[in-house]
Amino acid sequence: MALTLETGLRTLPGVGEVRARSLARLGLATAGDLLRYFPRSYEDRTRLCAISDAPAGEMVCVCAVVAEPPRLSRIRKGLELVKVRAVDGRGAMTVTFFNQAYVKDALRTGESYVFYGKMEVQGRARQMTNPAFEPEGRQRFTGRIMPVYPLTAGVSNNLLAGLVERCLPDCAGLIPEVLPQTVREGHKLAQSEFSYQNIHFPASWEALELSRRRLIFEELFLLSCGMALLRSRRDGEQGVVCAGADLAGFWPLLPFAPTAAQRRAAEEAAADMASGRPMNRLIQGDVGSGKTAVAAACAWLACRSSLQTALMAPTEILAEQHYKSLSALLAPAGVRVGLITGGERAAEKRRVQAALAAGEIDLVVGTHALLSGGVEFHDLGLVVADEQHRFGVAQRAALAAKAGERTPHILVMSATPIPRTLALIIYGDLDVSVMDELPPGRTPVKTYLVGEDKRQRMFGFVRRLAAEGRQAYIVCPAVEERGAEESPPESGFADLKAVTVYAEQLRTEVFPDLRVAFVHGKMKSRDKEAVMSAFAAGEVDVLVSTTVIEVGVDVPNAALMIIENAERFGLSQLHQLRGRVGRGKHQSYCVLVTSTRSAESRARLRVLTGTNDGFQIAEEDLRLRGPGDFFGHRQHGLPQLHIADLAGDMGLLKEAQAAAEELLAADPGLRAPEHRPLLERVREMFSAEADIFN
Ligand code: ADP
Ligand code: MG
User: Fold this and answer.
1) Cα-to-centroid distance, 412 and ligand 2 (Å)
2) Element (H, E) at 280
3) 32 CB less than 6 Å from ligand 1?
4) pTM for the whole thing?
5) pLDDT tens across 48-76, in order?
C-alpha cells in the first residue's frame, strides 16, 4: 500500500497503541508530520575501516565476522555483560555490550556484521563498547549519514529513523512545492522532494547542506509572506484623522511633569494620528519609564476626535490596574473609561458591552476578552497593546479588525529590548519611539548576588523591611513553567510541589509572624487575582510566587525582590522581575540567590548588580548567551519555527524577506492559482494564531 501524507503512523508496522501515544507527544500523528520533523544533528556513519586501521578514539564502521559465540555474564544485580570476539581479514576486536542481553542471541557466530562505534585501543587490544550493529548487506543505519532526532520517552532514534525511512519514498514527493520556480531559481534553492529526502537521509554532506538551505529559506519565506500579508491589510488605507493633535491640554492632567522621552514619544504618536495614515507605532521603554502616560495621551487625543480606544493588557490584574489609573487620570477630562476582562459578572459585562457599542465608553481597557465576539465598538479609532510580546501579531490585527471598515491607529508598548536587527521581523513595519529615560527621583534598585550560605541573613533582612512596613516578593522558578527546550536545572526546585513545600515552610517556620501568601501559574486566575490584590492592598507582607508575578504590576510599597535559583533566568527576564520593585519612594533591593558554582553563571548574574539599564542588559545577554534566548520562549508571538533560527540565519532571512516582498508586489493576495499551495502553507503556519487570512 502506498503511503500518503495523511497516513496515520499507527497503521505502520511496529507502531502499536503505546508507541503511537509516545509519538503523539512529539506532535507526530501522520506520515506528513514525520517528514516535517527534522533531525537535530547527524552522525557520520560513512567511514568504513579495517579493525587494525581504525584510528584510536574515533567513531567508525568496521565490517567484521563474529568469531565465537557471544558470552553473557552477570557481574552483579543490574549489570549484565555480553562479550563478543569479532575479526576481519587483518585484525580482531572485543565488542562489549552492557545490559543488552538480547545481543547474545542477535549476533550469530560466523556471520558478518557492520559495527558502528568508537574504537578503543589499549596496547595491541582493540575494542568497542555498545556499538550499533547490523548484518552486513542488510544495512539501514550504518554506512550512511544517520539522522539524530529529538526524542522522548518510549521513542528511540532507531524507531524514528526507521519510520521516516519507511515514509520517505512514498511521501517526499507529495509535499507540494511551495516555492515559485522563479524564487527557487533566483536563489539557487534545491527542489522540495530532494530536500525532504536529504534532510533526513543525506546522500552526502553537500546534499544535506543544499537541503538545509532550501528548507530554512522555505520556512523564512513562508513567515515573511505571512507577515507581509498581515501588513498589507493596512497598506494604502486611510487612517482616521485626529484633528488638532495638540497635547497641550493633556499634560496638565498628569500628576507629574512628563519626562522629555514621554513628551517625544507622545508627540510622535500624535503626529501619526493626525497624518491621515494609520499609525503603526512601537513604544519601546524600560520597565518604569512611564509608557502608560503615552498611551493615555493617545487615548485622550482619540476621545477629543470622538473616537474610541481599546487598550489590551496581557493579564487581568494588569488590565484592572490600567483601568484604575487611567480612570483617575482621564475621567476629569471627560473620558469615559470601561473595563472588560471576562472575569466580571454577566450583568456587568452586558452593561459595559452595550455602553461600548452605543459609544458611551471612550476608552475600554481589557484582556484577550476584548477579542471575543460580543465586544463591538461604536467608533474604534485606536488600538493600544501593552507588553506586546505576550500577544501574537494576529491578535493585534484581530482587535483592529473590530473597527469595521476603517483602519484604526495602532500603538504597541513593550519593555522587551530587542536588538535592532531583529526588530524588523518581529514588529514588521512599525515605527519605533524609544523611551530612554526614567522619571526623575527614582532611587535605583540595589542588587546583590548571594550564595545559599547567606540565607538566614536574607530572611533577617525581609523581617527588618517588614517591620518598616515594606513588602517583599520571593520568586522561585518551577520547572514545569519553563520552556521544554531548556535543560534540567543543576539545582533547586524540581517541580511545582517543591516550590509549594518551600512556600509552606516560609509561612509556618521562617516567617510565622508575617503574613505570607503564595501564587503560582497553575492556580485559577480568580484565586491568583485575589492574592495579588491582597498584596497590592498591603494585606500581605511576603508574596512567594513562581514566575507568574505579572509584568507591569505596580505595587510601590514593595521594596524587596528575592529571586531564588537566579541562574535559571535570562538576564533580561531578571531585569523585568526586578522592575517590580523600586516603584515607590523607598530604597528598594533585589537579591539574586544562587548556588551555582559555575564562574560563567556568576559573571553573568553580576551584570545585573552593575547596571539598571535594560538595553545594556539585553545587549550583554545577547553577547553572553547568543540570540537564541530572545526567541526561545515564543515571546514574540510569531509562529513556531521548525528548522530556521531567526537570529542565526540572518543572511537567508534577508533574502527570504526580499523574495516574499517581490512576490507579493506581483500578486498581493497570493490569489494566482500557482500560488495556492503557498497560501495554504502560510495559513497552516499561522493557524495557531487567529483565522486572519480570510
Ligand atoms: P511602564 O509601563 O513603562 O513600566 P508605568 O507607566 O507603569 O511604566 O509607570 C511607572 C510608574 O512611574 C507609575 O507609578 C507612574 O505613575 C510613574 N511615572 C510615570 N511617568 C512619570 C513621570 N514623568 N514622573 C514621575 N512619575 C512618573
Ligand atoms: Mg507598563
Assistant:
1) 11
2) strand 280-285
3) no
4) 0.63
5) 999 999 999 999 999 999 999 999 998 88
Closest residue (by CA) to atom 10 of ligand 1?
288
Of 628, 635, 555, give the one whose Cα is nearest residue 387.
635
Whether pLDDT at 690 is above 50: no
Indicate the pLDDT class of residue 124, thresholds 50, 70 and 90: confident
Q: How far is the CA of 678 from the centre of ligand 1 (A)?
A: 46
CB 138 within 8 Å of CB 5: no
200, three cell numbers? 533526513
Q: What angle do CA 675, 679, 684 make, to 5 degrees?
A: 150
351 contacts 370 by C-beta, under 8 angstroms: no
Report the separation in Å between the CA atom of 439 and the middle of ligand 1, taken as the mean of its atom positions: 7
Q: Which has the minimum average pLDDT: 296-310, 565-579, 662-676?
A: 565-579
Tell me: pLDDT of 83 over 50: yes
Per-residue H/E/C for 578-642: HCCCCCCCCCCEEEEECCCCCHHHHHHHHHHHHCCCHHHHHHHHHHHHCCHHHHCCCCCCCCCCC
Q: Are 193 and 57 in contact (CB under 8 A)?
A: no
* pLDDT tens digits along 180-195: 999 999 999 999 999 9
The pick from 247, 256, 315, 387 for probing ligand 1's pocket by mutation, whose C-beta has the most ligand atoms within 8 angstroms, reads: 256
Instruction: Determine the residue type at 409.
Output: H
Which helix (H) or strand (E) is 335 found in, with range? none
Tell which one of 292, 436, 580 to mutate to probe ligand 1, the residue whose CB is within 8 A of the most ligand atoms: 292
pLDDT in tens, 617-637: 877 776 666 544 444 444 445
C-alpha 564 to ligand 1 mean position (Å): 27
For the CA of 266, the nearest ligand = 1
What's the CA-to-centroid distance between 103 and ligand 2, angstroms? 62
Is the minimum distance from the CB of 554 to ligand 1 under 6 angstroms? yes
What value does the mean pLDDT take over residues 27-42? 93
> Exposed, middle or buried by CB within 10 Å (0-12, 13-18, 19+), for 534?
middle
* Spatial separation of the C-alpha atoms in residues 406 and 381, rounded to whole Å: 8
What residues pack around ion ligand 2 (CB closer than 5 A)?
A: 552
* DSSP codes of every residue in 131-163: -EEEETTS-SSSSSEEEE---BTTB-HHHHHHH
Could you tell me if 677 and 684 are in contact, meaning their C-beta atoms sit under 8 angstroms apart?
no
Ligand nearest to the CA of 315: 2
Distance from the alpha carbon of residue 283 to the mean position of ligand 1, in angstroms: 14
